[in-house]
Amino acid sequence: MASYNLDESYLYQAAGPFAITTQDLNVYYGNHQATFNANLKFPSNRITALIGASGSGKSTFLRSLNRLNDGIARVTGKIEYQGIDINQAAVNVYEVRRRIGMVFQHPNPFAKSIYENIAFPLKQLGMTSDLSNRVEESLRAAALWDEVHDKLQESALDLSGGQQQRLCIARAIAVKPEILLMDEPTSALDPISSRKIEATMQQLKKDYTIIIVTHNMQQAARSSDFTAFFHLGHVIEFNKTSHLFTTPRMPTTEDYISGHFG
Amino acid sequence: MATIFENRLEKLRQSFTEMGVDVSEQIYQSTKSYIDHDVKLAQTVIDGDSDVNSNETKLEKQAMNLIALQQPVASDFRIIISYLKAASDLERIGDNAGTIARETLRAKGNPRIADVETVIAKITKHVRKMLEQILDAYTTLDATIAPEIAQEDRKIDHYYQTTRTAITEGILANPETAVAASSYLMVIRLLERIGDHIVNLAEYLIYCETGKIVELDADDGHLD
Protein backbone atom coordinates (compact mmCIF):
# COMPACT_ATOMS: atom_id res chain seq x y z
CA MET A 1 0.00 0.00 0.00
CA ALA A 2 1.29 3.43 -0.87
CA SER A 3 2.30 5.63 2.03
CA TYR A 4 0.78 9.07 2.11
CA ASN A 5 2.01 12.26 3.65
CA LEU A 6 -0.76 13.16 6.08
CA ASP A 7 0.57 16.67 6.60
CA GLU A 8 -0.10 17.67 3.03
CA SER A 9 -3.56 18.85 2.24
CA TYR A 10 -5.51 20.92 -0.23
CA LEU A 11 -8.17 23.22 1.17
CA TYR A 12 -10.17 25.01 -1.50
CA GLN A 13 -10.96 28.59 -0.52
CA ALA A 14 -14.70 28.71 -1.02
CA ALA A 15 -16.49 32.03 -1.17
CA GLY A 16 -18.28 32.98 2.04
CA PRO A 17 -20.38 33.58 3.97
CA PHE A 18 -19.67 30.61 6.19
CA ALA A 19 -22.18 29.10 8.59
CA ILE A 20 -19.56 27.48 10.79
CA THR A 21 -15.78 27.17 10.74
CA THR A 22 -13.24 25.15 12.71
CA GLN A 23 -9.70 26.10 13.60
CA ASP A 24 -7.18 23.48 14.62
CA LEU A 25 -9.89 21.17 15.86
CA ASN A 26 -8.43 18.16 17.67
CA VAL A 27 -10.48 15.41 19.25
CA TYR A 28 -9.01 12.94 21.74
CA TYR A 29 -10.57 9.75 23.08
CA GLY A 30 -8.35 9.29 26.12
CA ASN A 31 -4.86 9.07 24.67
CA HIS A 32 -6.07 8.36 21.18
CA GLN A 33 -6.25 11.35 18.89
CA ALA A 34 -9.15 11.02 16.43
CA THR A 35 -8.82 14.25 14.45
CA PHE A 36 -5.78 16.41 13.81
CA ASN A 37 -5.94 20.19 13.41
CA ALA A 38 -9.05 20.22 11.27
CA ASN A 39 -9.48 23.61 9.61
CA LEU A 40 -12.68 23.70 7.67
CA LYS A 41 -15.08 26.42 6.61
CA PHE A 42 -18.63 25.43 5.71
CA PRO A 43 -20.31 27.76 3.20
CA SER A 44 -23.82 28.85 4.13
CA ASN A 45 -26.78 27.30 2.30
CA ARG A 46 -24.60 24.66 0.77
CA ILE A 47 -24.31 20.92 1.31
CA THR A 48 -20.88 19.74 2.37
CA ALA A 49 -20.18 16.01 2.46
CA LEU A 50 -17.58 14.47 4.75
CA ILE A 51 -16.16 11.27 3.30
CA GLY A 52 -13.46 8.84 4.33
CA ALA A 53 -12.98 5.27 5.49
CA SER A 54 -14.21 3.99 8.84
CA GLY A 55 -12.09 5.46 11.60
CA SER A 56 -11.03 8.44 9.47
CA GLY A 57 -12.49 10.86 12.01
CA LYS A 58 -15.32 12.28 9.92
CA SER A 59 -18.17 11.32 12.29
CA THR A 60 -16.14 12.38 15.32
CA PHE A 61 -15.56 15.72 13.65
CA LEU A 62 -19.25 16.10 12.79
CA ARG A 63 -20.40 15.29 16.32
CA SER A 64 -18.01 17.89 17.71
CA LEU A 65 -19.75 20.62 15.75
CA ASN A 66 -22.81 20.62 18.03
CA ARG A 67 -20.95 19.46 21.12
CA LEU A 68 -22.20 15.87 21.04
CA ASN A 69 -18.72 14.78 22.07
CA ASP A 70 -19.07 16.52 25.44
CA GLY A 71 -18.33 13.96 28.13
CA ILE A 72 -17.13 11.43 25.56
CA ALA A 73 -14.03 13.03 24.14
CA ARG A 74 -11.76 16.00 24.73
CA VAL A 75 -12.11 18.58 21.99
CA THR A 76 -9.56 21.36 21.53
CA GLY A 77 -9.47 24.18 19.02
CA LYS A 78 -12.12 26.62 17.92
CA ILE A 79 -15.57 26.07 16.47
CA GLU A 80 -16.73 29.46 15.33
CA TYR A 81 -20.44 30.02 14.84
CA GLN A 82 -21.83 33.53 14.42
CA GLY A 83 -18.59 35.04 15.69
CA ILE A 84 -18.58 32.98 18.87
CA ASP A 85 -16.31 30.07 19.73
CA ILE A 86 -18.93 27.52 20.75
CA ASN A 87 -16.31 25.05 21.92
CA GLN A 88 -16.22 26.65 25.37
CA ALA A 89 -17.68 25.28 28.60
CA ALA A 90 -19.55 28.54 29.24
CA VAL A 91 -21.57 28.27 26.05
CA ASN A 92 -25.11 26.91 26.51
CA VAL A 93 -24.89 23.52 24.84
CA TYR A 94 -28.67 23.16 24.48
CA GLU A 95 -28.86 26.43 22.60
CA VAL A 96 -26.01 25.21 20.38
CA ARG A 97 -27.93 22.03 19.58
CA ARG A 98 -31.13 23.96 18.86
CA ARG A 99 -29.28 26.03 16.30
CA ILE A 100 -27.19 23.16 14.98
CA GLY A 101 -29.48 20.16 14.61
CA MET A 102 -28.55 16.55 14.07
CA VAL A 103 -30.08 13.69 12.11
CA PHE A 104 -28.65 10.29 12.97
CA GLN A 105 -27.92 7.16 10.99
CA HIS A 106 -30.90 5.21 12.32
CA PRO A 107 -34.25 6.95 12.39
CA ASN A 108 -35.14 7.55 16.03
CA PRO A 109 -38.67 8.91 16.22
CA PHE A 110 -40.34 9.17 19.61
CA ALA A 111 -42.91 6.47 20.43
CA LYS A 112 -45.61 9.08 19.95
CA SER A 113 -47.88 10.21 17.16
CA ILE A 114 -46.46 11.78 14.02
CA TYR A 115 -47.87 15.11 15.16
CA GLU A 116 -46.35 14.87 18.63
CA ASN A 117 -42.94 13.97 17.22
CA ILE A 118 -42.76 17.49 15.85
CA ALA A 119 -44.88 19.28 18.48
CA PHE A 120 -43.27 17.74 21.57
CA PRO A 121 -39.82 19.38 21.20
CA LEU A 122 -41.54 22.68 20.41
CA LYS A 123 -43.62 22.45 23.59
CA GLN A 124 -40.45 21.68 25.51
CA LEU A 125 -39.08 24.96 24.19
CA GLY A 126 -42.14 26.72 25.57
CA MET A 127 -44.03 27.15 22.34
CA THR A 128 -47.78 26.95 22.92
CA SER A 129 -49.45 28.58 19.94
CA ASP A 130 -49.21 28.02 16.22
CA LEU A 131 -48.05 24.45 16.79
CA SER A 132 -50.18 22.96 14.01
CA ASN A 133 -48.79 25.39 11.49
CA ARG A 134 -45.23 24.66 12.52
CA VAL A 135 -45.88 20.89 12.31
CA GLU A 136 -47.25 21.24 8.78
CA GLU A 137 -44.47 23.58 7.71
CA SER A 138 -41.79 21.19 8.99
CA LEU A 139 -43.38 18.12 7.43
CA ARG A 140 -43.70 19.93 4.12
CA ALA A 141 -40.06 21.02 4.23
CA ALA A 142 -39.02 17.42 4.85
CA ALA A 143 -41.19 16.29 1.90
CA LEU A 144 -43.35 14.11 4.14
CA TRP A 145 -46.57 16.12 4.43
CA ASP A 146 -48.30 14.62 1.39
CA GLU A 147 -47.75 11.11 2.72
CA VAL A 148 -48.87 11.69 6.33
CA HIS A 149 -51.23 14.69 6.46
CA ASP A 150 -54.28 12.46 6.90
CA LYS A 151 -52.80 10.32 9.67
CA LEU A 152 -51.01 12.79 11.92
CA GLN A 153 -52.39 11.14 15.06
CA GLU A 154 -51.11 7.68 14.14
CA SER A 155 -47.92 6.32 15.67
CA ALA A 156 -44.68 7.46 14.06
CA LEU A 157 -43.39 3.93 14.56
CA ASP A 158 -45.83 2.67 11.91
CA LEU A 159 -44.09 4.70 9.21
CA SER A 160 -41.55 3.12 6.86
CA GLY A 161 -37.84 3.59 7.58
CA GLY A 162 -37.54 6.26 4.90
CA GLN A 163 -40.58 8.11 6.22
CA GLN A 164 -39.29 7.87 9.80
CA GLN A 165 -36.00 9.40 8.71
CA ARG A 166 -37.81 12.28 6.97
CA LEU A 167 -39.86 12.69 10.14
CA CYS A 168 -36.59 13.01 12.08
CA ILE A 169 -35.46 15.64 9.58
CA ALA A 170 -38.79 17.45 10.07
CA ARG A 171 -38.33 17.25 13.85
CA ALA A 172 -34.80 18.63 13.55
CA ILE A 173 -35.87 21.59 11.44
CA ALA A 174 -39.04 22.33 13.45
CA VAL A 175 -36.98 24.20 16.02
CA LYS A 176 -35.57 26.36 13.22
CA PRO A 177 -31.89 25.57 13.38
CA GLU A 178 -29.45 27.17 10.96
CA ILE A 179 -27.26 24.18 10.41
CA LEU A 180 -28.30 20.59 9.91
CA LEU A 181 -25.75 17.88 10.65
CA MET A 182 -26.51 14.48 9.15
CA ASP A 183 -24.60 11.40 10.22
CA GLU A 184 -25.04 8.80 7.48
CA PRO A 185 -28.76 9.58 7.26
CA THR A 186 -29.52 7.09 4.50
CA SER A 187 -27.25 4.16 5.28
CA ALA A 188 -30.14 2.23 6.87
CA LEU A 189 -32.52 3.02 4.00
CA ASP A 190 -33.31 1.47 0.62
CA PRO A 191 -32.21 3.30 -2.58
CA ILE A 192 -35.64 4.83 -3.27
CA SER A 193 -35.92 6.27 0.25
CA SER A 194 -32.30 7.45 0.01
CA ARG A 195 -33.05 9.33 -3.20
CA LYS A 196 -36.04 10.98 -1.52
CA ILE A 197 -33.84 12.16 1.35
CA GLU A 198 -31.27 13.46 -1.16
CA ALA A 199 -33.99 15.33 -3.05
CA THR A 200 -35.25 16.73 0.27
CA MET A 201 -31.74 17.96 1.07
CA GLN A 202 -31.69 19.92 -2.19
CA GLN A 203 -34.83 21.74 -1.09
CA LEU A 204 -33.60 22.24 2.48
CA LYS A 205 -30.32 23.88 1.50
CA LYS A 206 -32.25 26.98 0.46
CA ASP A 207 -32.86 27.59 4.16
CA TYR A 208 -30.19 25.58 5.93
CA THR A 209 -26.51 24.76 5.77
CA ILE A 210 -26.13 20.99 5.61
CA ILE A 211 -23.10 18.96 6.63
CA ILE A 212 -23.45 15.26 5.91
CA VAL A 213 -21.24 12.32 6.78
CA THR A 214 -21.65 9.54 4.27
CA HIS A 215 -19.96 6.25 3.50
CA ASN A 216 -21.60 6.35 0.14
CA MET A 217 -19.27 8.23 -2.19
CA GLN A 218 -21.85 8.21 -4.96
CA GLN A 219 -24.22 9.98 -2.61
CA ALA A 220 -21.61 12.61 -1.82
CA ALA A 221 -20.93 13.08 -5.54
CA ARG A 222 -24.62 13.26 -6.42
CA SER A 223 -25.91 15.55 -3.77
CA SER A 224 -23.24 17.78 -2.23
CA ASP A 225 -21.71 21.09 -3.31
CA PHE A 226 -18.45 20.64 -1.40
CA THR A 227 -16.68 17.55 -0.12
CA ALA A 228 -14.08 17.09 2.60
CA PHE A 229 -12.02 13.91 2.51
CA PHE A 230 -10.77 12.62 5.86
CA HIS A 231 -7.97 10.09 6.21
CA LEU A 232 -6.63 8.77 9.53
CA GLY A 233 -7.97 11.81 11.33
CA HIS A 234 -6.59 14.35 8.88
CA VAL A 235 -8.49 16.52 6.45
CA ILE A 236 -6.65 15.69 3.25
CA GLU A 237 -8.74 17.63 0.79
CA PHE A 238 -11.62 20.09 0.85
CA ASN A 239 -12.84 20.92 -2.59
CA LYS A 240 -15.83 21.59 -4.78
CA THR A 241 -17.57 18.25 -5.20
CA SER A 242 -17.41 18.59 -8.98
CA HIS A 243 -13.62 18.94 -8.76
CA LEU A 244 -12.96 16.41 -6.02
CA PHE A 245 -14.70 13.63 -7.95
CA THR A 246 -13.28 14.46 -11.37
CA THR A 247 -9.87 16.01 -10.76
CA PRO A 248 -8.87 15.58 -7.09
CA ARG A 249 -5.80 17.55 -6.03
CA MET A 250 -4.33 15.04 -3.59
CA PRO A 251 -3.11 11.55 -4.56
CA THR A 252 -4.66 10.14 -1.37
CA THR A 253 -8.07 11.44 -2.43
CA GLU A 254 -7.65 10.02 -5.92
CA ASP A 255 -6.76 6.57 -4.54
CA TYR A 256 -9.61 6.58 -2.05
CA ILE A 257 -12.40 7.65 -4.38
CA SER A 258 -11.23 5.37 -7.18
CA GLY A 259 -11.01 2.39 -4.83
CA HIS A 260 -7.23 1.93 -5.05
CA PHE A 261 -6.77 1.97 -1.30
CA GLY A 262 -5.23 -0.95 0.57
CA MET B 1 -39.90 16.96 -6.68
CA ALA B 2 -37.29 16.96 -9.45
CA THR B 3 -34.01 15.37 -8.44
CA ILE B 4 -30.69 17.11 -8.90
CA PHE B 5 -30.02 14.65 -11.73
CA GLU B 6 -33.23 15.55 -13.54
CA ASN B 7 -32.46 19.25 -13.24
CA ARG B 8 -28.98 18.82 -14.64
CA LEU B 9 -30.16 16.52 -17.42
CA GLU B 10 -32.70 19.17 -18.38
CA LYS B 11 -29.87 21.74 -18.58
CA LEU B 12 -27.90 19.36 -20.79
CA ARG B 13 -30.95 18.95 -23.01
CA GLN B 14 -31.28 22.73 -23.26
CA SER B 15 -27.60 23.13 -24.15
CA PHE B 16 -27.97 20.56 -26.90
CA THR B 17 -31.07 22.25 -28.27
CA GLU B 18 -29.31 25.62 -28.30
CA MET B 19 -26.34 24.11 -30.07
CA GLY B 20 -28.64 22.48 -32.61
CA VAL B 21 -30.40 25.78 -33.32
CA ASP B 22 -27.05 27.54 -33.77
CA VAL B 23 -25.63 24.92 -36.11
CA SER B 24 -28.85 24.77 -38.10
CA GLU B 25 -28.64 28.54 -38.56
CA GLN B 26 -24.95 28.26 -39.53
CA ILE B 27 -25.78 25.70 -42.21
CA TYR B 28 -28.69 27.75 -43.52
CA GLN B 29 -26.66 30.95 -43.70
CA SER B 30 -23.47 29.43 -45.10
CA THR B 31 -25.24 27.58 -47.89
CA LYS B 32 -27.39 30.63 -48.64
CA SER B 33 -24.27 32.81 -48.77
CA TYR B 34 -22.68 30.37 -51.21
CA ILE B 35 -25.69 30.09 -53.50
CA ASP B 36 -26.45 33.84 -53.43
CA HIS B 37 -22.74 34.86 -53.55
CA ASP B 38 -23.41 36.89 -50.40
CA VAL B 39 -20.03 37.81 -48.91
CA LYS B 40 -21.49 39.69 -45.96
CA LEU B 41 -23.61 36.76 -44.85
CA ALA B 42 -20.60 34.45 -45.25
CA GLN B 43 -18.62 36.62 -42.86
CA THR B 44 -21.43 36.38 -40.27
CA VAL B 45 -21.15 32.59 -40.38
CA ILE B 46 -17.37 32.65 -39.98
CA ASP B 47 -17.67 34.98 -36.99
CA GLY B 48 -20.25 32.71 -35.34
CA ASP B 49 -18.19 29.53 -35.47
CA SER B 50 -16.45 30.12 -32.15
CA ASP B 51 -19.87 30.29 -30.43
CA VAL B 52 -20.65 26.77 -31.59
CA ASN B 53 -17.26 25.54 -30.38
CA SER B 54 -17.71 27.06 -26.93
CA ASN B 55 -21.23 25.62 -26.74
CA GLU B 56 -19.79 22.19 -27.42
CA THR B 57 -17.20 22.62 -24.66
CA LYS B 58 -19.94 23.67 -22.24
CA LEU B 59 -22.07 20.67 -23.16
CA GLU B 60 -19.10 18.31 -22.78
CA LYS B 61 -18.42 19.62 -19.29
CA GLN B 62 -22.07 19.20 -18.32
CA ALA B 63 -22.15 15.64 -19.65
CA MET B 64 -18.87 14.64 -18.02
CA ASN B 65 -19.96 16.04 -14.67
CA LEU B 66 -23.28 14.22 -14.95
CA ILE B 67 -21.49 10.93 -15.59
CA ALA B 68 -18.87 11.44 -12.88
CA LEU B 69 -21.16 12.83 -10.20
CA GLN B 70 -24.58 11.33 -10.83
CA GLN B 71 -23.58 7.84 -12.02
CA PRO B 72 -26.44 7.52 -14.51
CA VAL B 73 -27.44 4.03 -15.64
CA ALA B 74 -29.67 2.48 -18.31
CA SER B 75 -31.66 4.99 -20.40
CA ASP B 76 -30.30 7.95 -18.39
CA PHE B 77 -26.77 6.86 -19.29
CA ARG B 78 -27.64 6.34 -22.95
CA ILE B 79 -29.25 9.77 -23.24
CA ILE B 80 -26.12 11.49 -21.94
CA ILE B 81 -23.78 9.47 -24.16
CA SER B 82 -25.99 10.23 -27.16
CA TYR B 83 -25.95 13.97 -26.48
CA LEU B 84 -22.19 13.88 -25.91
CA LYS B 85 -21.47 12.10 -29.18
CA ALA B 86 -24.07 14.09 -31.10
CA ALA B 87 -22.56 17.37 -29.88
CA SER B 88 -19.24 16.35 -31.38
CA ASP B 89 -20.84 15.72 -34.79
CA LEU B 90 -22.82 18.96 -34.54
CA GLU B 91 -19.61 20.83 -33.91
CA ARG B 92 -18.08 19.25 -37.01
CA ILE B 93 -21.16 20.26 -39.02
CA GLY B 94 -20.61 23.81 -37.74
CA ASP B 95 -16.97 23.64 -38.85
CA ASN B 96 -18.09 22.55 -42.31
CA ALA B 97 -20.55 25.46 -42.44
CA GLY B 98 -17.62 27.77 -41.69
CA THR B 99 -15.59 26.30 -44.54
CA ILE B 100 -18.50 26.69 -46.98
CA ALA B 101 -18.74 30.34 -45.93
CA ARG B 102 -15.01 30.79 -46.57
CA GLU B 103 -15.52 29.27 -50.04
CA THR B 104 -18.11 31.99 -50.69
CA LEU B 105 -15.39 34.58 -50.11
CA ARG B 106 -12.83 32.67 -52.18
CA ALA B 107 -15.01 32.01 -55.24
CA LYS B 108 -16.43 35.52 -55.45
CA GLY B 109 -15.86 37.21 -58.84
CA ASN B 110 -14.78 34.14 -60.83
CA PRO B 111 -16.65 32.71 -63.85
CA ARG B 112 -19.33 30.21 -62.77
CA ILE B 113 -21.01 27.07 -64.06
CA ALA B 114 -24.74 27.81 -63.75
CA ASP B 115 -25.95 24.19 -64.06
CA VAL B 116 -23.67 23.06 -61.26
CA GLU B 117 -24.82 25.85 -58.98
CA THR B 118 -28.42 24.75 -59.55
CA VAL B 119 -27.54 21.23 -58.42
CA ILE B 120 -25.62 22.52 -55.38
CA ALA B 121 -28.71 24.53 -54.39
CA LYS B 122 -30.72 21.32 -54.64
CA ILE B 123 -28.25 19.32 -52.48
CA THR B 124 -28.21 22.16 -49.99
CA LYS B 125 -31.98 22.06 -49.62
CA HIS B 126 -31.78 18.35 -49.04
CA VAL B 127 -29.09 18.61 -46.37
CA ARG B 128 -30.93 21.41 -44.55
CA LYS B 129 -34.09 19.31 -44.47
CA MET B 130 -32.21 16.28 -43.10
CA LEU B 131 -30.67 18.40 -40.36
CA GLU B 132 -34.03 19.88 -39.39
CA GLN B 133 -35.59 16.43 -39.28
CA ILE B 134 -32.88 14.92 -37.08
CA LEU B 135 -32.85 17.88 -34.67
CA ASP B 136 -36.63 17.60 -34.39
CA ALA B 137 -36.23 13.92 -33.57
CA TYR B 138 -33.73 14.83 -30.81
CA THR B 139 -36.32 16.96 -29.05
CA THR B 140 -38.34 13.82 -28.32
CA LEU B 141 -35.43 11.34 -28.61
CA ASP B 142 -37.51 9.38 -31.10
CA ALA B 143 -35.42 7.23 -33.47
CA THR B 144 -38.27 6.35 -35.84
CA ILE B 145 -36.91 8.65 -38.54
CA ALA B 146 -33.36 7.17 -38.46
CA PRO B 147 -33.71 4.75 -41.43
CA GLU B 148 -35.27 7.52 -43.53
CA ILE B 149 -32.32 9.79 -42.74
CA ALA B 150 -29.90 7.08 -43.91
CA GLN B 151 -31.94 6.72 -47.11
CA GLU B 152 -31.78 10.48 -47.72
CA ASP B 153 -28.02 10.42 -47.21
CA ARG B 154 -27.68 7.85 -49.98
CA LYS B 155 -29.36 10.37 -52.30
CA ILE B 156 -26.81 12.99 -51.23
CA ASP B 157 -24.01 10.54 -51.99
CA HIS B 158 -25.51 9.94 -55.43
CA TYR B 159 -25.78 13.69 -56.09
CA TYR B 160 -22.18 14.08 -54.99
CA GLN B 161 -20.95 11.59 -57.55
CA THR B 162 -23.01 12.90 -60.47
CA THR B 163 -22.19 16.53 -59.65
CA ARG B 164 -18.49 15.75 -59.54
CA THR B 165 -18.71 14.48 -63.12
CA ALA B 166 -20.66 17.59 -64.16
CA ILE B 167 -18.00 19.83 -62.64
CA THR B 168 -15.20 18.06 -64.53
CA GLU B 169 -17.16 18.45 -67.75
CA GLY B 170 -17.70 22.12 -66.97
CA ILE B 171 -13.97 22.76 -66.64
CA LEU B 172 -13.29 20.99 -69.94
CA ALA B 173 -15.92 23.11 -71.68
CA ASN B 174 -14.58 26.36 -70.23
CA PRO B 175 -11.20 26.30 -68.43
CA GLU B 176 -11.86 29.78 -67.00
CA THR B 177 -14.31 28.19 -64.58
CA ALA B 178 -11.45 26.24 -62.92
CA VAL B 179 -11.34 28.42 -59.77
CA ALA B 180 -15.09 28.18 -59.26
CA ALA B 181 -15.00 24.48 -60.09
CA SER B 182 -12.41 23.72 -57.40
CA SER B 183 -14.68 25.56 -54.99
CA TYR B 184 -17.71 23.51 -56.11
CA LEU B 185 -15.77 20.31 -55.55
CA MET B 186 -14.92 21.43 -52.05
CA VAL B 187 -18.47 22.48 -51.23
CA ILE B 188 -20.21 19.34 -52.50
CA ARG B 189 -17.68 17.29 -50.59
CA LEU B 190 -18.51 19.27 -47.43
CA LEU B 191 -22.24 18.82 -48.00
CA GLU B 192 -21.69 15.10 -48.46
CA ARG B 193 -19.72 14.99 -45.18
CA ILE B 194 -22.47 16.92 -43.40
CA GLY B 195 -24.88 14.23 -44.61
CA ASP B 196 -22.63 11.59 -43.01
CA HIS B 197 -22.58 13.50 -39.70
CA ILE B 198 -26.38 13.68 -39.78
CA VAL B 199 -26.49 9.91 -40.24
CA ASN B 200 -24.23 9.61 -37.19
CA LEU B 201 -26.74 11.68 -35.24
CA ALA B 202 -29.44 9.22 -36.36
CA GLU B 203 -27.29 6.30 -35.18
CA TYR B 204 -26.91 7.84 -31.70
CA LEU B 205 -30.69 8.19 -31.51
CA ILE B 206 -31.04 4.47 -32.18
CA TYR B 207 -28.45 3.80 -29.45
CA CYS B 208 -30.34 6.11 -27.11
CA GLU B 209 -33.63 4.31 -27.71
CA THR B 210 -32.47 0.70 -27.94
CA GLY B 211 -28.89 0.51 -26.65
CA LYS B 212 -27.81 -0.93 -30.00
CA ILE B 213 -24.76 0.46 -31.77
CA VAL B 214 -25.53 0.44 -35.49
CA GLU B 215 -23.87 1.60 -38.72
CA LEU B 216 -26.62 2.97 -40.91
CA ASP B 217 -24.31 3.88 -43.77
CA ALA B 218 -22.24 0.68 -43.72
CA ASP B 219 -22.87 -0.06 -47.41
CA ASP B 220 -21.96 3.18 -49.08
CA GLY B 221 -21.16 5.73 -46.45
CA HIS B 222 -17.74 7.28 -46.85
CA LEU B 223 -16.85 8.39 -50.32
CA ASP B 224 -13.43 9.12 -51.71
TrEMBL record, chain A:
Q: Which UniProt keywords apply?
A: ATP-binding, Cell membrane, Membrane, Nucleotide-binding, Phosphate transport, Translocase, Transport
Q: Does the keyword Transport apply?
A: yes
Q: Which organism is it from?
A: Fructilactobacillus florum DSM 22689 = JCM 16035
Which residues are in the ABC transporter domain? Answer: 20-257
One Gene Ontology term, aspect cellular component: membrane
CDD domains tied to this protein? ABC_PstB_phosphate_transporter (cd03260)
Q: Which GO terms describe its molecular function?
A: ATP binding; ATP hydrolysis activity; phosphate transmembrane transporter activity
One GO biological process term: phosphate ion transmembrane transport
Kindly provide the name given to this protein in its UniProt entry.
Phosphate ABC transporter ATP-binding protein
From TrEMBL, chain B:
Listed GO CC annotations: cytoplasm
Output the SUPFAM superfamilies linked to this UniProt entry.
Answer: PhoU-like (SSF109755)
Keyword Transmembrane appears in the UniProt entry? no
Q: Cross-referenced Gene3D superfamilies, in alphabetical order?
A: Phosphate transport system protein phou homolog 2, domain 2
Q: Show the InterPro entries listed in the entry.
A: PhoU, PhoU-like_sf, PhoU_dom
Where does this polypeptide localize? Cytoplasm
- The residue ranges of the PhoU domain are 17-103, 121-204
**Has UniProt tagged this entry with the keyword Cytoplasm?**
yes
The record's keywords, sorted A to Z, are:
Cytoplasm, Phosphate transport, Transport
Biological process (GO), any one: phosphate ion transport
* UniProt subunit comment: Homodimer.
Give the family, as the similarity comment puts it: Belongs to the PhoU family.
Supply the NCBIfam families for this chain. Answer: phoU_full
Q: What does this protein do?
A: Plays a role in the regulation of phosphate uptake.
The name this protein goes by in its record: Phosphate-specific transport system accessory protein PhoU
